[in-house]
Amino acid sequence: MKRRESAPAPDVLDETGAAQESETEQKPPAPADPPASADPPAQAEEEGGGAGRKDKRRTLGKKVLAGLIALGVVALAVCAALGIRWMQAKTAEPTALSGPTQTGGHTYRFYRFEHKEQTWDQAKRYCKKQGGHLATISSVEENLFLYGAMTANKLTVAAFGYSDEKKADQWMWVQKEKADGKFFRQNITFSNWHEGEPAGLYGTAKYAVLTALYPDGTWQASDFGSDKVFICEWDD
Q1: Phi, psi values for residue 58, rounded to 5°
Q2: Which domain holds residue 83?
Q3: 23 vs 196: CA distance, rounded Å
C-alpha cells in the first residue's frame, strides 16, 4: 500500500492577508555607515598648518614692532643730538683770533665761530654785546689796515658789517649805537668791491668779506659759510 506524501504547509497569512516570510529566510544586510567627511589625520594636519601660519604671523609682527621701536629710538637720539648742537650753536662764544688792534681812534679784533650753524647775524649781536659793532670801513687806509691785520694773523677771510640781508642788492652798513642807546646808520659811501663783485650763487652771498683771494684788499660777497671769521670794532 503506497504511503501518501504530506503536502507542504500553506503560508501563514497575517492580518493584512500578506504571507509571512519563513523564519529561516535571511534578512538583507544593514547599510554601511557613510564615510567620514574628512580623514581625521588629514584634518589634524590641516589644523596644525593653520596654527603654524598664525605663529609665523605673530613672530613677524613682533619683529616688525621691534624694528619700529628701534627706529623710534634712533630718531629720538638724532633729534636730541641735533637739539643739543642747536643749543650749543645758539649760546657758544666765538674764539678770539687776535689781540686788540688799533688805528685812527678805532679798536678791532678778529673772532671765529666754531659751529657751522652760527650766523652773521649772531656775529653782529656778539659785537654789540661786547659794546662794539661789526667793523665798518670808510676809507682806503682803514681797508688796507684791516686786510694787513687779517693776513698777519694767518687768516684767509674775514666778514665785516656790510650786507644786503634785508633787501637783495641793497648793501647797507650795520647800525651803530650812540651813548644814549639809540641807533643810527652811518653815512658811509666807501665801497671796495673786486671786479665782478658782488656776485654769488642763488642769492646766498649776502655778506661782504676781505679775502686772501684778492690780495689787493678788494671785497668778495660771501655766504658766511665754512669760514666763520668776523671783525668787531670799538670806537674811541
Answers
A1: -65, -45
A2: 52-91
A3: 132
